[in-house]
Every structure is written in C-alpha cells, then in structure tokens.
Design brief:
The termini are far apart. The protein contains 5 helices and 5 strands; from the N terminus they run ββαβββαααα. The longest helix is centred in the C-terminal third of the chain and has 19 residues, at 100-118. The protein has a 3-stranded antiparallel sheet with strand order 3-4-5, with no helix packed on it. A two-stranded antiparallel sheet has the order 1-2. Helix 4 runs antiparallel to helix 5 (133-141). The chain has helices at 20-25, 73-76, 89-92, 100-118, 133-141, and strands spanning 8-10, 13-15, 28-36, 41-49, 57-64. It is α+β, with helices and mostly antiparallel strands and 151 residues long.
Amino acid sequence: MNAENGTVTAAETAFRRDTRPCNAAAEVTFLHKTGLTENYGSDGGIVRSLPGKPWRRYIVVFLSNLGYRYYDAKVADAADFAKGEDGFPYVSRSISYTQRVPALGLSIDAMMQERQRARPRGASRQGRGSPTDASARSIERMGLSTVPSRA
C-alpha cells in the first residue's frame, strides 16, 4: 500500500482508490484462493475475525457457473474496443466477477454473525445450527437456496 495516498498495486493491477477507510472498517481477514474461467467462478477461503472485533471463524467455498462471461453491465460498458478489449474483464482489467458474488459473501457473513449471537452463552464455538429465518430469506432473495445442516 502506498503510504501517501492509500492506493494498492497487486501484480500489475493498480487499484486507484484509497484503501485506508476500508482497512479501518475491516472486521475480518479472508485468506482465499479464487478460480475463474469463461464458464466457472469459484472462491474458497478462511474467514477470521481481527483482534477486538466480533468473533468469527469459518470456512466458505463458492462454486458457480458465473465465469468471466457473466459480469455487471458497468464493467461491460468499460471495455475499449479500439484497444482490442473484447469486454471480458480479464482483458479490460476490470472487475472479474459479477458483484453478486461479494454480495453473497456479505449475506453469508451476516448469517454467521447471527448464528454466533444466537448461540447460548458458554456454548462451544464448534456447535452446529441452521441459519436463522432472516438469513435464509436474505440468501433466497438473491435467487439462491440454503441447505439445512445435519446436526
């Protein structure tokens, strides 16, 4: 991170926004590995709370048919055909996934926070439970479904 302006360059991609406000608001770390082809998108990783933030620790895995040919209209509109960019994000160096993917991640994290709050005091953090009705409705609104846990 550039200490002067808060911008970050990862590999060859320069992210021109100041990342310091996001870092200050962060509650978790997400150590993950993504995968992306024309037809498939995936992400899997470990979520851990930062010191002093509400406790969360879980593994999340995502596999879908949302490859790089499916992304948001704003990204598609950013392609510069005069430069040979065909609109695919990996060519135009824009966002690779539809923003519904991080929205799903936010919903999953909210569900995990609710599960933690709903757990009785003194209950093991290893305990299992199904998502609350509010979390399930949130996920279903995105056109997805929840799978009941087998406690």
